[in-house]
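Hello Y.,

Per our agreement to keep a running log of every chain we model this quarter, I'm adding this entry. I've kept the format consistent with earlier entries: sequence first, then predicted structure.
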Amino acid sequence: MKIQTISSEEFLLHWKPKFFAIFIGQAFSLFGSSLVQFALVWHLTRETGSATILATATLIAMLPQIVLGPFIGALVDRWNRRVVMIVADGSIALTTLALAGIFWMGTAQIWHIYIVLLLRSLGGAFHAPAMSASTSLMAPKEQLSRVAGARQTLQGLIMTVAPPTGSVLLELTNKIGRAHV
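Predicted structure for the entry above:
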């Protein structure tokens, strides 16, 4: 793979289109991931009515990021961040697609959802530090505080908007499903 080098003047003039293309794409990806993660936990809670299952699902959805978080940043710094993000996002998407297939076949069990929550969280544990490091490398030093602010704002919006959106979509799909039965 040939690496293209550009001058610092070219970088300062042309960083925004590349940065915002990736930033916006990742915003949609992170929103979707957060939405699905919440919807899965909400589905388990609604279907079982069990506080134990709610607590277990929430723990499983967070555990990889909590346990591996302190170590993954060092690994991501040694690896190709682009590849890490692609593999992490791709793994999360494939895992979600597999679960959708299991639901479509009508064979979804609680343990299937637990495994999916665990695998999605594992992918997120690698994706977050890779994205954080990548975005700060894609902007000029003078813009790093703005980029960091944009990342934090995005994270706050995702944490605020994705859960209720996930619950609304879950309720809508359930109503549509009941109407067709």
